[in-house]
Amino acid sequence: MLVKWEGIVIRSVDYGESSKVMTLFTRENGKLGVMARGAKKTKSRLAAVSQLFSHSYYLCKAGPGTGMPDLSQGDMLDSFRDMRQSLTATAYAAYISELLDRLTQEREPNPYLFQLLLHTFRYLDEGRDAEILCRIFETKMLIVAGISPQLTACVNCGEQREPYAISVGQGGLLCPVCLPSDPYAMAVTPSTWKLLRLFQVFDLERLGDIEVKPATRNQLKHVLRSFMDEYLDLRLKSRAFLEQLERMERMTQSDQD
């Protein structure tokens, strides 16, 4: 049986001398694996559509069981060429793809997540702020994983009293009265927790220009990564590379200053 899916390649692994096993995140069926036979051959018609991050229509042969479908042909919609040519944008795209891969189950349809991934890649391709796009994506994926920090009032008493700190252990904001209940709570600026709250409900399609100060960027990253490290058992190779790249960029910027 032939089936047609709209998908984005979030992982691609060589298989044998000439083939690839692709992991697609599809609009129709969520995440699934596909065999692209002969895709590594130079003149293969499957070479382009089997590349990492490719957005295409995929025509596949799917058997009656749960075996891996074979890719018959693909119709490229977007290769995100400009994103690929930027090392920084590519590193963020790889991290976003791996995060999505690790936090989703196979064949669980989620058109919202497909659209989120597609818009994120489009913005990366346009040269938009990769770091902020990543923070938005991380916030959304925490919600997918069942972790949604309480950012509207104090998680302990329910009162709205500023200035807030953020408690990873208690799962959200702590007001000054409740702050002693967590000696490890993180002091954050109002801009940080308000942006995090916005990211939780924000429709990425409406993204405009967001100016975020360096100190706020650092706090956003620290808070989100702290929640991920506390509640999710993830060791992402792409995250290690991304952090190394970020350190190199900070060193370069410091030398220029």
UniProtKB/TrEMBL annotation:
Gene3D superfamilies: Nucleic acid-binding proteins (2.40.50.140), Recombination protein O, C-terminal domain (1.20.1440.120). Residues 1-80 form the DNA replication/recombination mediator RecO N-terminal domain. InterPro entries: ARFGAP/RecO, DNA_rep/recomb_RecO_N, NA-bd_OB-fold, RecO, RecO_C. Keywords: DNA damage, DNA recombination, DNA repair. The keyword DNA damage applies. One of its GO terms (cellular component) is bacterial nucleoid. Transmembrane segments: none annotated. GO terms for biological process: DNA recombination; double-strand break repair. Belongs to the RecO family. Involved in DNA repair and RecF pathway recombination. NCBIfam families: reco (TIGR00613). This is DNA repair protein RecO. The lineage of its organism: Bacteria, Bacillati, Bacillota, Bacilli, Bacillales.
